[in-house]
Each structure stands twice: as structure tokens, then as C-alpha cells.
């Protein structure tokens, strides 16, 4: 520091001012470097957070793709089956709880049903027709099979006797030769005959001959022709009604 001789400022004060200015200049670069490092650290932290979020989103997307692929591979009615199985499990748990308490499950279930639901189910039962009628021969055969199997009353004593008599041969396989060895009992034959007679009687009721109407017009020459005329009238009667009336009046052109 150059101080003129005529300057009133002491030399000591000049030295003090010079030292203070130097320390401020040295502190400013350190403060700027610390701020830059802090800013860089904050940016790195945000970058790491974004990187973790991206990895998490990628993982969730992969899990969703796997779950969607599983759902597509399931049968179309899987949700209904799953709901049915869950309902059956709840029913079984409820039955076990009622059995542990010594209560009747059917009675407990009826107590939980409201009066409105009970009336609605009763109306639905009344509307339901137990006799579905004839739809096709396969359905009729299935209904006949179910009816016959419900009538079967197994004779366990006879079964045990046959089991002792034939042993393992009682359960035939593809290599078994049991043709002609079984002789039906008299009770079994009588039961079969009675069932066949019931079937014949029921068939006669359904295929009964319709009574003949003496007042109806005779437009046929035999029974086969009468059936054909009825079918023709059923399908084309509404189209030929006017022509028939004109022919009866004699005004047909």
C-alpha cells in the first residue's frame, strides 16, 4: 500500500484494510464451490429417485403383463367358477360352525333368508315347469336313464354273494369272458317286466288316438291323406282361406 507522505491515514490502518479485503476474496470462491457441490448432489439425488421410479414402473408393468396373460389363458367362465367355488367354501365353513355349535345348518340358513326373497323363490318355483316336454331323442333318453337309475335299489346281500363267488372276475375288464355266465333272478325279471308294462301304459296315454269329429268336413281318402291335409292346412291355411271360400261360394275366377 503506497501512502503519500501528506496523507493523514496511518500506515498501520492501511495494513489492516489490506488484510481484510484479502480474506473476503479468499472466502468467495470457497462458498461458490460449496453451493455448486450441493446443487450437483441435489441433482444426483433427483436422478437416482427418477431411476428408482422407472425401475419400479417397469417391474409393475411386467407383473401386469404376466397377470393379463394368465387371465387370457383361463377359460371364459373362470370368474363364475371361481365365485361358485368361493361360495361353496363359505357354505362348508358355515356348516362346520353350525355342527360345532350343535345347530342345524338348514334351519340357520332359513333364518337368514328374508321374507321377500322367500316369496320371490316360491313364485319362481311355481312358474317352473317340471315337465320340459320332448326336445330331442338324446334328452328323452337321458331323462329315461335318470328315472330308471333313481328306481334302482341295490341288493347288498346278493352283491356280497356274487363277490364271494366270482372274486376279481366280478369286475370285468377288456380281457374278461363272462358272456352267458350271469343268470338273472326271478325277482329281477319280474321287476323288469313290471317296468316295461308301466312304460307301455304311459306310451299308450301319450300316443292315444284322437276322437273322430263327425261334423268335420271330409277332404281325405284315407288316414295318411288326412294327416297330409292337416299339415298343409297348418302351414298354408292362412294363404288359401280366401280361395277355399270362393270355391265354396262358386265365385272363384
UniProtKB/TrEMBL annotation:
Q: Which GO terms describe its biological process?
A: mRNA splicing, via spliceosome
Any keyword Glycoprotein? Answer: no
Signal peptide span per the entry? none
| Region (Disordered), start-end ranges | 19-40
UniProt xrefs under InterPro entries: mRNA_splic_SYF2
Listed A to Z, the keywords are: mRNA processing, mRNA splicing, Nucleus, Spliceosome
Where in the cell is the protein located?
Nucleus
Which Pfam family, just one, is annotated for this protein?
A: SYF2
Q: Name one GO cellular component term.
A: post-mRNA release spliceosomal complex
Member of which family?
Answer: Belongs to the SYF2 family.
Q: What does this protein do?
A: Involved in pre-mRNA splicing as component of the spliceosome.
Question: Subunit arrangement?
Answer: May be part of a spliceosome complex.
Name of this protein: Pre-mRNA-splicing factor SYF2
Amino acid at each position: 500500500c503506497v501512502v503519500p507522505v501528506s496523507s493523514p491515514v496511518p500506515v498501520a490502518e492501511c495494513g489492516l484494510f489490506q488484510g481484510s479485503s484479502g480474506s473476503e476474496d479468499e472466502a468467495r470462491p470457497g462458498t461458490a464451490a460449496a453451493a455448486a457441490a450441493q446443487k450437483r448432489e441435489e441433482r444426483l439425488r433427483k436422478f437416482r429417485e427418477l431411476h428408482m421410479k422407472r425401475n419400479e414402473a417397469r417391474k409393475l408393468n411386467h407383473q401386469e403383463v404376466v397377470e393379463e396373460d394368465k387371465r387370457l389363458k383361463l377359460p371364459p367362465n373362470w370368474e363364475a367358477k371361481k365365485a361358485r367355488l368361493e361360495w361353496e367354501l363359505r357354505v362348508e365353513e358355515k356348516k362346520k360352525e353350525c355342527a360345532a355349535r350343535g345347530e342345524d345348518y338348514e334351519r340357520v340358513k332359513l333364518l337368514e333368508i328374508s321374507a321377500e326373497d322367500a316369496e320371490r323363490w316360491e313364485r319362481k318355483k311355481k312358474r317352473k315347469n317340471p315337465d320340459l316336454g320332448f326336445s330331442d331323442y338324446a334328452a328323452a333318453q337321458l331323462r329315461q336313464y335318470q328315472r330308471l337309475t333313481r328306481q334302482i335299489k341295490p341288493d347288498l346281500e346278493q352283491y356280497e354273494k356274487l363277490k364271494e363267488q366270482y372274486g376279481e372276475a366280478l369286475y370285468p375288464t377288456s380281457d374278461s369272458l363272462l358272456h352267458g355266465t350271469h343268470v338273472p333272478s326271478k325277482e329281477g325279471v319280474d321287476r323288469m317286466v313290471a317296468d316295461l308294462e308301466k312304460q307301455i301304459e304311459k306310451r299308450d296315454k301319450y300316443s292315444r288316438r284322437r276322437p273322430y269329429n263327425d261334423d268335420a268336413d271330409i277332404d281325405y281318402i284315407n288316414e295318411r291323406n288326412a294327416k297330409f291335409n292337416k299339415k298343409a292346412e297348418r302351414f298354408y291355411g292362412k294363404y288359401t282361406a280366401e280361395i277355399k271360400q270362393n270355391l265354396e261360394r262358386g265365385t272363384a275366377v
